[in-house]
Design brief:
Arc Repressor Mutant, subunit A; Jelly Rolls; 10 helices; 22% strand; single chain; alpha+beta; 2 domains; 4-stranded antiparallel sheet; 227 residues
Length: 227
């Protein structure tokens, strides 16, 4: 995916007028970040709104004890980091690449300028924040109530949110990386992926996972295996 494809597929971009779109294209910066590289770090100033052009990103936090937890996975087409910009506070998480990635960086000044000039952009952000709330509530529910197979299924489905139009329903991601997103070992992920593949929800290839049935993947639970 190129920057232009990312922008064309971003729902907020289509609602901007020509002058606003030109400003976005002029101001956005592109940055290549290697695997396991930091996009932003907890406690640092929020200077940009980020779009994922290629690669996979995880939103992560590490406790003082050293225990790490992944809060969210982001596939190409995703935009993130608006909360810290809106609240004018430092980042409260780390954003880390799981593989070599290309990011679009919209400067904070441009982000705030769009807030002042575009009602459509504001409406998008309201929906985006509401969606984020739903994702985090769902993640808490998944961890407390669902079995391993369902946690893997929901983690994969969450990467293909309706706000993030994909070129194809496919992720270039390893089983170890899925494990990081779901908070599980690679061995447990391997077993869950086999179950989901047997159910016809995904197809697993080397370094890739193809989503075949996003609707049922996003609602999969242990009882669905008997339906």
């Amino acid at each position: 995916m190129s920057l232009e494809v990312l922008l064309q597929n971003s729902p907020w971009m289509s609602g901007l007028n020509a002058a606003e779109q030109n400003k976005v294209r002029t101001d956005i910066q592109i940055k290549q970040i290697p695997a396991e590289g930091f996009i932003c770090r907890r406690g640092h100033a929020a200077d940009f709104w980020f779009g994922v052009i290629s690669g996979v990103v995880k939103i992560n936090n590490v406790a003082p004890s050293g225990k790490s937890t992944t809060l969210l996975g982001l596939a190409p087409g995703s935009w993130f980091g608006e909360g810290s910009l809106l609240k004018d506070e430092s980042r409260r998480y780390d954003a880390i690449t799981l593989r070599d990635s290309e990011l679009a960086l919209m400067p904070r000044a441009t982000f705030l300028w769009l807030l002042d000039h575009s009602i459509f952009f504001n409406r998008f952000l309201i929906s985006q924040l509401n969606k984020r709330l739903g994702q985090f509530i769902g993640a808490m529910e998944n961890e407390r109530l669902l079995d391993v197979d369902a946690r893997v299924a929901r983690s994969l489905a969450a990467m293909f949110d309706a706000w993030y139009p994909q070129q194809s329903m496919m992720l270039k991601i390893s089983q170890e990386e899925v494990g990081q997103l779901a908070g599980l070992s690679r061995q447990r992920v391997n077993s869950a992926l086999k179950v989901l593949e047997e159910r016809g929800l995904i197809r697993v290839c080397y370094g890739e996972i193809h989503i075949l049935d996003i609707k049922n993947l996003s609602t999969f639970d242990s009882t669905s295996q008997d339906s």
